[in-house]
Specification:
The protein has 7 helices and 15 strands. By secondary structure, it is α/β, with parallel strands linked by helices. Strands 3-2-1-4-8 form a 5-stranded mixed beta sheet. The chain has a 5-stranded mixed beta sheet with strand order 11-10-9-14-15. A hairpin with a 3-residue loop joins strand 1 and strand 2. The radius of gyration is 17 Å and the shape is globular.
Length: about 230
């Protein structure tokens, strides 16, 4: 029997959910609710449970904005890391929803739905913060919190080109900063292809190189299905 995957996208401001068939096609369209404040594990799981109460599915994939390894959340810079120290979010979701669950970083999940599966590919997300994911020949590599690394003028990537920086600087100056960041990433990682997603991706006015592609959440929609094939 073909399985239906519930894909959950946990963001700094909204939590979104939809269901997908085994081919990665949408069965039930995205619905969303505001991310709870404070975003404790209990509050977040309660919000997700309410959000998807009318959905039918066999397995769960969740993308989380922080450092995640083996389904366990270690940090959540934009939700409150004090609540998220070694929290097994997959176990909490499995218990609350009654289905097996897997959790990865949100950039990891988006990237799984976008990559070509050839060579060394990098995904970045531009939103509340700066997310990254790496893939080698289609295999998801260990997650690194590049967003928390200082890049220019002692500012982290999150601070330098996150949503707050965009709001303060405006589109033109923010794009200048992004241009500087893209040069750093190319030199540091020497990726074969770079995918750029997140809410701020649509604010890009730079001319991008041939090995850079702007993607939407819809482009990466089947990341939740691909996660179960990893």
């Amino acid at each position: 029997m073909a399985s239906i995957t519930l894909a959950i996208d946990i963001g700094g401001s909204k939590v979104k959910g939809c269901t997908l068939n085994a081919q990665g096609e949408m069965v039930q369209d995205y619905i969303k609710q505001p991310t709870p404040v404070p975003a404790t594990p209990e509050n977040l799981v309660h919000t997700i449970k309410e959000l998807v109460k009318d959905f039918k599915y066999d397995q769960v994939s969740a993308g989380f904005p922080g450092y995640v390894r083996n389904n366990i959340v270690y940090t959540a810079p934009n939700l409150g890391s004090q609540y998220w120290n070694k929290v097994d979010l997959a176990a909490l979701l499995s218990k609350a929803l009654g289905k097996p669950a897997r959790v990865v970083n949100d950039a990891d999940m988006l990237g799984l739905g976008c990559i070509a599966g050839k060579g060394f590919e990098m995904m970045i997300t531009l939103g509340t913060g700066f997310g990254t994911a790496f893939f080698l020949d289609g295999k998801l590599l260990p997650h690194l919190e590049i967003g928390q690394h200082p890049c220019i003028n002692n500012k982290t990537y999150d601070q330098y080109i996150g949503q707050r920086a965009y709001d303060d600087l405006g589109k033109k100056e923010w794009n200048k900063r992004l241009h500087a960041v893209l040069k750093i990433l190319q030199t540091t990682f020497n990726y074969d292809h770079l995918f750029i997603g997140g809410g701020l991706a649509k604010k890009i006015t730079l001319e991008l190189k041939d090995n850079m592609t702007i993607v939407s959440n819809i482009d990466g929609i089947d990341g939740g299905v691909q996660l179960w094939k990893q």
